[in-house]
């Protein structure tokens, strides 16, 4: 377990985290945790220092995001031996099984609602704290952080357990349950996708207005990080004008890109992590450890590998050979094997470039792509700027480089598949072969929406997703 980035843990943190948090982890139910909180007034956070400590417990707030999107996408390949050695849940996810849980609980769902519970405890608790001239900046920072963390969890939940956002059907499409308070008596139900995405956007917009431009730690949300998150959300909603607008706003505050010619390719994990200040990272989070996200079990898809030019430094810095297989090492988690789940400037350049292309501005789109790619190419005289005959040509090139730039960044390939499958020119059928059996996932298949865990269906009485 990593140490928290919050260095001044006090008596509250020790009591609250070691007692209530460990109980919550053991029972894996948000309401049970909240019930313990309600009945243990001596460990309820009450002041700004308490709330900051709670949100700074990065083992809960920043780590443990799902590996589901990587397991389910076409960037990953695992051998039959690896598949047979993994847990049933991971095996079922990899082949897009209709029943992935087999009656078991899902730690991914529980971990995300645990983040929601922490954020709600802070948001509700802040209502009892008086704002004064001396505490207003910290109060706003904490509130903005809590809103951001809650929205980040809601968005991640929606990326798996709800349909992709569709403006034509969002009012009737079932979304995730929105748990918005720490009140254990609050009744929850499946909100519509429109309600869920409106809540995410409203919360993050409020967070943008409250958060500072820079933070002491990259595990704490900042204004450009929140703007970048909004750009990601709007992109997934296929609202490209808004995506480009917010990516541009974030890059207007901070736009650093590494020149990959300066990165040491002789070490296994070449990129600095947030502890040593990875300068492309705006907000740091990471996925949980999964058995086959480790070399040599994680094998990179051969078609993805073939798409890199020999002068593209990402081919050298992102991948290495382990036990005869090509696997991934380019995580912005540094030497940590868990995939980076946060937000970086590289993603925002690609969002803005795609938005320009979608709006018909091929020159601005290609300019953004070239800004990024110049930093990724060998400094050996082979660089030739990208060109495009029209906006659609620019879009195709941007989407190709997006996949190559962000192959194992959190859920991005999965959410891209979900949104791009709506466009016939970009729709793809995914295929796996295990033990001589072929598994497929066609575009827009119901299995692009995960089933809600069986125990949650029983507990909450909510409707299941069709598979």
From TrEMBL:
InterPro entries: SusD-like_N (IPR033985), SusD_RagB_dom (IPR012944), TPR-like_helical_dom_sf (IPR011990). This is SusD family protein. Residues 347-466 form the RagB/SusD domain. Keywords: Cell outer membrane, Membrane, Signal. The keyword Signal applies. It comes from the Eukaryota. Residues 32-235 form the SusD-like N-terminal domain.
